[in-house]
Each structure stands twice: as structure tokens, then as C-alpha cells.
Specification:
113 residues, mainly alpha, Arc Repressor Mutant, subunit A, 2 domains, 7% strand, elongated
Length: 113
């Protein structure tokens, strides 16, 4: 879906440049922000923390004490429960490491920090 949106906007550029890609991404994020905000508001505080942590770490080193403290988790079990719920809701997927399924939603979350 996002590829189609990117290409639609890119088609309107006479000579596409790298800054056009950034502009197009920002426009798509702007258009989808209400949907992202609705998802965000449906989450618990720990689920929001888990998403912020995932966006910040890329899914690696999430369980080390420094990373957990960075977003306010007191234990790894809190993070694990939040990740399980986010996976069940199809917001995350796990294939070796956790990742946010909707790439642009992940970028939106990263901008919140």
C-alpha cells in the first residue's frame, strides 16, 4: 500500500531527488496520523513504552537493564507481556526479533520520542 502511495506522489515530481522522498514520506505520515493516533490511544502505557523501546533499539538489546530503564520498565516481564499483546493485536511480528509490522507507523512512533 505504501509503495503505491510513494510511487503516486513520486510520479508528480518532474525530476525526483532524495529530498522528494523525505517530503513524500512526511506527507504519507501526515495523512495517516489520525489512524496512528487512534492505534496509539488504544494502547496501555506499557504497550506504548514497548513500542518506543522497539523503535529506539530496532528490536535488539531490548531486555538489557539500561534499555528497560530508558523507557521506564521495572522488569523484563513487563516488557514481555506488552510485546505479547502487541503481537496478538498484529501490531508487531516476531521473526527472530520483534519488529513493528507497519513500517511507517514505526517511524511515527520513533518521532514521538
Amino acid at each position: 500500500m505504501y509503495v503505491q502511495q510513494f510511487l503516486f506522489h513520486l510520479w508528480s515530481c518532474s525530476r525526483p531527488a532524495e529530498d522528494d522522498l523525505d517530503r513524500i514520506e512526511a506527507e504519507i505520515l501526515r495523512r495517516n496520523r489520525n489512524g496512528y493516533y487512534n492505534i496509539w490511544e488504544s494502547l496501555t502505557l506499557n504497550q506504548k513504552k514497548a513500542l518506543k523501546l522497539l523503535a529506539a533499539t530496532g528490536g535488539s538489546q531490548m531486555y538489557n537493564a539500561e534499555s528497560l530503564q530508558q523507557v521506564g520498565f521495572k522488569s523484563g516481564s513487563q516488557l514481555k507481556r506488552a510485546l505479547n499483546v502487541l503481537t496478538a493485536r498484529d501490531i508487531l511480528e516476531k521473526n527472530g526479533v520483534y519488529r513493528i509490522q507497519d513500517v511507517l507507523f514505526g517511524r511515527w512512533v520513533a518521532q514521538l520520542s
